[in-house]
Amino acid sequence: MNTGRYEIRKALPDDLEFLPVIEQRASEIFLDTPFADEVSQECLSIELLSQQLDAGRLWVAVEDTGHPVGFAVAIMIDGAAHLHEVSVDPDHGKRGLGRKLVEAVCLWAKHTGYPVVTLSTFRDVPWNAPFYEQLGFVQLTDPQLTPGLRKLRDEEKEAGLDISARILMRRSLQ
Which of 8, 45, 97, 136 sees the fewest Cβ atoms within 10 Å? Predict the structure, then answer.
């Protein structure tokens, strides 16, 4: 998938070393929000990223030099695709890369036979829930949460995230 100067592709093993730096840089956009402390915590582990790369669930946005500037990672929750994270280096932001990474995950999920993609995000941060709503995601109510999504919410709370400021969302791929 080519986006002009950028390309979205499946990640390669050599891309892994760049992803924690991208994630840390991407967290800088939260500095002026009430969630600055929450998102500046530990980055995703190389182990998790490597596992998802091996499973075909890790995508990167690369500039024309081939250097990664963004990534998306999906995991499986209750047999469904879950968009675990999208991060784009702010120096490459506002170019549609986040949108294209989300669409790459959704396209993969659809072609793989998953009927939905879920995610967890901040409710009131403009580049979070409102962004995902524009891409067709809808908020899940408590009765709609699967056991795995409930567990995810518990894990986020244990990690120090303000659960009252977060929502779980789903996009139907049918």
Answer: 45
First-to-final CA distance of the chain = 22
Q: How far apart are CA 78 and CA 69, in angstroms?
A: 30
Q: Dihedral sign, CA of 133, 53, 77, 159? A: negative
Kindly state the tokens that stand for 169. 């969302």
Burial bucket for residue 131 (CB in 10 Å: 0-12, 13-18, 19+): middle
Residue 104 DSSP symbol: H
The pairing of beta strand 80-88 with beta strand 116-122: parallel
The structure tokens listed for 170 are 């789903």
Distance of CA 75 to the CA centre of its chain: 10
pLDDT, one tens digit per residue, over 69-98 is 999 999 999 999 999 999 999 999 989 999
Residue 117 in contact with residue 146, Cβ under 8 Å? Answer: no
Q: What is the pTM of this model?
A: 0.90
Match 């998102």 to its residue by tokens.
39
> What does the block give as tokens for 127?
């580049």
| pLDDT, tens digit (0-9, with 9 covering 90-100), for 9-60 | 999 999 999 999 998 888 776 556 555 455 555 678 899 999 999 999 999 9
Q: CA geometry: angle at 54 spanning 48 and 60, to 5°?
A: 75
